[in-house]
Specification:
Layout (H helix, E strand, L loop, with lengths): L1 H19 L38 E2 L12 H12 L10 E9 L5 E9 L10 H13 L6 E3 L2 E3 L1 E10 L2 E6 L1
Parallel strand pairs: 1-6
Antiparallel strand pairs: 2-3, 2-6, 4-5, 6-7
């Protein structure tokens, strides 16, 4: 009987002890919803650009059954860059520059991010003058179409890729 009491006491003590001990839960690591999501960064983004439907509801333009969504078609975009971009003569800069951004439910743009690579998609840094020009011209474009899902205007991601050969702008994608 004494042995049973001791065993029962030990069992009860261990149960109570396990309930009392604080279990260490690993810290939850925050991940973006999708690879490439663009979070607000107060150091580089303007505070006047607002997302209409929350960061978790920014869509990809191609998920809405549309191609590139310029109000005045791509020819106007090409004309804008061809007339404003000044190539860096004598430059041996070659590669691809992608500028990705968000178009909100009002057709306004913000949260611009730049990715630079050579033609083998290896990360590289272009001359600052080239990046500054392309980013500035991209920010000036105001013809982004307002897209709808179920008759509600949405926020969506957009991008432009610039092909640079010897410092000259040779192609704009998509």
């Amino acid at each position: 009987m004494k042995k049973n009491f001791i065993l029962l006491s030990i069992l009860l003590f261990s149960i109570l002890w396990s309930c009392q001990t604080e279990k260490k839960v690993p810290e939850k690591q925050e991940y973006l919803r999708w690879v490439g999501d663009i979070e607000q960064n107060d150091k580089v983004d303007t505070s006047d650009f607002k997302i209409c439907n929350g960061d978790d509801n920014i869509l990809q333009y191609f998920n809405l059954g549309k191609g590139p969504v310029y109000k005045d078609e791509k020819l106007k975009i090409l004309h804008t860059f061809n007339s404003k971009y000044k190539s860096t003569r004598g430059s041996n800069e070659n590669g691809l520059i992608r500028i990705r951004f968000i178009v909100n439910c009002e057709g306004k743009t913000g949260r611009f991010r730049v990715l630079q690579s050579d033609y083998n998609y290896q990360e590289k840094e272009f001359d600052k003058e080239i990046i500054t020009q392309l980013l500035s011209i991209t920010k000036e474009i105001e013809q982004w179409e307002v897209l709808y899902k179920n008759e509600t205007p949405v926020d969506y991601y957009m991008y432009l890729i610039f092909k640079i050969s010897d410092g000259q702008l040779t192609e704009i994608l998509p």
